[in-house]
Amino acid sequence: MTLCNFKGLRNVTVEFSEDATTISGRNGTGKTTIKDAFSWLLWGKDSEGNTDSKFGIKTNDANGNFIPDLEHEVSGTFEVIDTETGAVDTVEFRRVLVEEWKVPNGETERVLKGHHTDYFCNGVPLKTKAEYDKRINDIIPEAVFKVITDPYYFLTLHWKAQREMLLQIAGDVSEADVAKDNAEFAALLARVTGKTLEDYKREVAVQKNKISDRLEKIPTAIDAITRVTPTAPDYAALEADKARLEGELSEIDTAASSAAEANRIAYENAAKIQQQINERKTAQQKVFFEAKEAARNQAYKTNEAYNNAARDLQTLDAQARSVETAYSSDKARIQTRIQQVQRYTEETKSQQDALRESWYKVNAEEFSGEAENLVCPLFNICCKDEEAKAAYNENREAARVKFGEDKEKRLNTINEKGKGLTTQIEQQEAEISRLNGELATLEAKHSTETTDIAKRRALLNKTLAESPRVSTEPDIKPETLPEWVKLQGEITNLTAQLPTADTTSASNTAELRQRKENITAQLKGVERLLGVRTTIETNNAEVAKLREEAAKLAQEKADLQKEETLIDEFTTARMNEVERRVNALFSRVQFKMYRTQIEDAKQVPDCVCYIDGVRYADKNTAGKVNAGLDVINTLCAFHGVSAPIFIDNAESVNEFIPVSSQLVKLVVSTEDFTVTNR
């Protein structure tokens, strides 16, 4: 592999051994650069996966600035061996980063506009990056290249990515494989037909949670029913009381029926007289209402003039406020516009003064064109070229004429601008005059409207003073109404004709009625207590039903818990088989494909590497490197391909496990950059 102007290495060629090559040197001498160059040559990235736009590919000077006009190149020659036929094919790849420099129009200095990359295979230029990438991917895909060339790469991936690759290599363990020697597992799979075991487990969990929720609510429901269930009374005693009370009610009804007939005739006569009295009272109310309504209508008519004037005065006040609002708004608008135009006029006059000063300045200019003052437009220094000076002298008169024409043209331009500004000032002053006239018209209109409103207000106030209001609720005494007095006399005569009530009969009837009410109340109380029997029986039946449901649900929950346990045992058996198959692929490392959750002791998927019983993350560098080499051996065997393995910090490893791949060891030493082949 040859590096040219790559990350500070100007021209370095490394010959690699078929077995192992050691690249040693102090820190910063370029060991990792060899690894980056190898990765960039194939994939356009450094060893950490950064593209050339994100890592320092260029060679810098002593001040840290990149050296321009250099092509940054890496080429490598590879032996591609067909493991089946043994055929060897030699192929050379070359990648070159080229700077693109351009000189912008009107400038003399070049600027760096960008870069492009050239690609070669066996010395032949390739048209596109896609063609170059295809040539490499036909030999080894990038995803495979990463995991078989870096012992740290695979074991630092996310555990899910590691687990997916390992399961791909070991092959999946089917549910049928796990259940073939276990009748309970086989029966479980039969129940899971049409869905995944995980979906079935979730269904079981949902059913169990529903049952648990219902079981938790049943004791509360039983307690609520028990609390409202009354204590059973003495039903025999209550039945005897009911019979006694019903007998007493029958006796009272018989005694009350004979007194009721005597009272009926007297009540009918009294009812007829009372009806006549009520008719006359109704007629009295009508007479009083009509008299009061007539007086109220007269008051409304008297108040009409006052009400109309008051309403018109409110309307006039609203009109006055509207006039004032419109006047204030229009006045402010006109005054603001006058101020704006006045400000514009002042600004235009200032511009006119500035033009006048400019005219005087241009008019005072004199032509000056001596050869000694000839200045180079490129370098801004006095011209030393005699031919240029001679040419300048020959054309000086033409230059003087040109100066005069240019001066006259600029003066005319200033004059034209000045005329335009004068016209603007005249227009602005005319606008101010028009606005002042509009303001005067507005003032006159406002004065007229204000005077008119004042006159109308005075007339309305005069009407209010001359038409005082009267009450619309007149105080009328019914005794002053002849018709009402006449009806009152008739009511007095009819009242005297009402029959006198039989006090003894009425007293007996009232006593019987009171006794009946008391006995009826007692009978209802007895019947209410007897009705408790139905409530007690209903509540006891509901409690028995709830307890029966609780027993049934408890059994269903136990069955579901047993099913969950069986599913967990099946999952554990499958996990053990997966771990067995995966770990059978490696000689040094072992993987734990599952872990136990602390909160619920459940087994969940995981992927943790162990070396001699110690977690990969806790091992030293040598342990990690050899663990990575063990993984690479398995991955190479699975993919049927191997590639050079680059090992950083190789000085930390005393002994490497055997590998079928070519090794490139990067070793930190106190010596200069050295390549050693074994």
Description:
The chain has 678 residues and is an alpha+beta fold. Among the domains are: 1-140, P-loop containing nucleotide triphosphate hydrolases (Rossmann fold, 3-Layer(aba) Sandwich); 235-466, no CATH class. Helices cover 61% and strands 13% of the residues. It has helices at 31-43, 129-137, 142-149, 159-170, 175-179, 183-191, 197-228, 235-363, 386-394, 396-466, 482-496, 503-583, 621-639, and strands at 2-6, 9-13, 20-25, 72-81, 88-102, 111-121, 124-126, 589-596, 603-611, 614-615, 645-647, 663-668, 674-677. The strands form 3 sheets. Strands 2-1-4-5-6-7 form a 6-stranded antiparallel sheet, with helices on one face. It has a 4-stranded mixed sheet with strand order 11-12-3-13, covered by helices on one side. A 3-stranded antiparallel sheet has the order 8-9-10. α3 runs antiparallel to α13 and α7 runs antiparallel to α12 (503-583). The radius of gyration is 58 Å and the shape is flat. The two termini are 17 Å apart. 13% of the residues are buried.
- Output the number of helix runs: 13
Secondary structure: number of strands:
13
Q: Which stretches are poorly predicted, pLDDT < 50 over at least 5 residues?
A: none
> In this structure, how is the largest beta sheet organized?
6 strands, antiparallel
How are strands sequenced across the largest beta sheet? 2-1-4-5-6-7
Q: Output the structural class.
A: alpha+beta
Share of β-strand residues: 5-15%
Oligomeric state as shown: single chain
How much is the radius of gyration in Å? 58 Å
How are helices and strands ordered from N to C?
EEEHEEEEHHHHHHHHHHHEEEHEEE
Shape: flat
Q: Mean pLDDT, nearest integer?
A: 84
- Percent of residues in helical segments? 55-70%
| First-residue to last-residue Cα separation | 17 Å
